[in-house]
Amino acid sequence: MRIVSLLPAATEIVGALGLLEELVGVSHECDYPPAARGRPRVTHCPIHGAGLSSAAVDEWVRETLHGNGTLYTIDDELLRQLRPDLILTQKLCDVCAVGYGTVARLAATLPGPPQVLNLEPSSLAGIFDDIRAVAEACGVSARGEELVAQLTGRVEAIRSRAASIGYRPRCFLMEWVDPPFCAGHWGPELVEIAGGCDPLGREHRPSIQIGWEEVLNAAPEIIVLALCGYNVARARQDFELLRSFPEFDSLPAARNNRIYIVDASAFFARPGPRIVDSLELLAGILHPEEFREFVSRGSHDHRVVRAKGQNGK
User: Fold this and answer.
1) Which of 100, 118, 172, 282 is at 20 to 30 A from 297, Cα to Cα?
2) Within a domain: residue 220?
3) What's the pLDDT tens digit per position in 247-292?
4) For the whole model, what pTM was predicted?
């Protein structure tokens, strides 16, 4: 089996199933497991690593999608040279990776042709189903079931512990700052399982742009900056931008210093095995006294940083 993965979450699934030796090509964003970084990269994005502001990124995405229908290019010649038996791609989000239609049309012209497997989860259950689907396509269904059982056990452990906590804080899982976007798909579900509620989230539906006035009206007690595609260092810059928004200091989360920056590039935005790590980190954010082990884990390796302004407040 020769596998090409066109999205980071799929690459992580392949790695978790013990199939990295069969992975012959990846996308430009695939960086985990570390061994995947040395694989040939078959996609390209013009602004990847360009360091643009979030407003500039949003503008470029909207204009490029409107004009070209896609943000990415595929190295056709390299893909042919790799001779894949299986290509892992997605229909979930045109902003996140190469679209399924583009991949399917190209795959039809390749020798074989290779199987194209679409991954399109909108929930935790959907993510686990994708793990099973990849495992089945690779002939390792038993491994897939074992991995899903392990992940499900961790989820249910968090759900059970959080269910006994009476206080469920309003937690705004923020997916973008400029302009503001709420979280969608599995994001609000993670908040709920971890013992909170996201008053602005769109569970099992795509995230959307929202007005800042909606955030003020929701009065979140906790804000988690899970900025799509951003690590902690990059998201810190947008926190400073967020602090400049009108009446920011009136938010309960701001007054009580309960704004957290997470590595969404590695965790919250990737529908793969590490989504359960995301849930555990979120439990530590929402209920630090009850989930002390996840607080220490998140702070130890800088997956979670408690945000403070330049003046320390």
Assistant:
1) 172
2) yes
3) 999 999 999 999 999 999 999 999 999 999 999 999 999 999 999 9
4) 0.90
